[in-house]
Specification:
Layout lengths: L2 H23 L8 H93 L2 H20 L4 H18 L5 H16 L5 H13 L29 H14 L17 H24 L2 H18 L5 H14 L12 H19 L2
Amino acid sequence: MTEQQEAQATSQEGAEPRQSAASQTTQASPAPTRQSKGRAGVLMGAVAILVALGLTGGLYYHGHQGALAQQAELAQLKQQLGDVMGRVDRGNSQEQQKLGELGKSQQALQEELKGLQNRVLDLNDKRPNDWMLAESEYLVRMAGRKLWLEHDLISAITLLGNADERIKALNDPSLMPIRKALAEDITKLKAMPRVDREGLTLKLAALEDQIDQLPLSNVTMPTAEEQANQAVSSNPDEWESNLKKNWVKFTENFITIRRRDGAVEALISPQQEIYLRENLKTKLLQAQLAVYREQQALYEDSIDKASRWLAQYFDTDNSATHYLQGELDKLKGEQIQFDYPDKFSTQALLEQVLTERLQRIATGN
């Protein structure tokens, strides 16, 4: 049954009670016709259909708009997902490209390292003597450092001798100029005077230990004048002289007066004695330091002052003081400073030969 038929049936049912009631209430009202009843039912059905269609259209429109919004949102999410996937793909491609470049560079380094290893092996096969020549050049440089920085003449000579032995073991006639220069350098060093620095410093230290036992000099009194002859003369004309002589003899029993010409030096105080001995030790310590630094002027000045103080304040007649004075006089004449050669002639020759051989190796000749 359609909605229109249901509306018509409903209208007919409602019309019949109204008609019966109307007929009961008044007899004057005219009864409606069937034609008017049919038109009212049609009108009500049309209204119902229109309402249903409107509700259906509204629901459809609302659902359609929601579907469009969902589709737009879904499309936006798909686009965002595509962008993210694109960035991920680009990042992966860049990382793969970097890994590829890194792999290529690593491979290139490995090839270069392998080439260097082959080159070193080739050098060992072709020029094994060059290593000994480089070692000789190093020994010559070490000899120079020992001589110029430490003034160690013996070590410098020993190092130059070791360098000559290595060049001799090469048995290479082209290296004879280097051996000749080495021989000249060794001869110059051997001709230089040698100083036993350890012996000098030990001797100075031993003399320093004896300073506390040295006795100081005593007070030196000037010699008294000889008294004239006090014998009384028998000549009456010398009565005045005889009177003086008798007076002198009389007064000698009470007071004796002696005349002494010259200055009398007083003894130093105990505190000054301590300072004197410590200053004397300091001068000997300065002399030891000058030996290692090869400072000839400081060495001689320290020994000279120590010697003068010994003669001035200590008893020179004492055997210990006399021995110490004699040893200082011997040490003062020691030569501790020398003029060393500025450079070794061997150094330049060795550097030139090594440079030429390295260039030949680099060029493959």
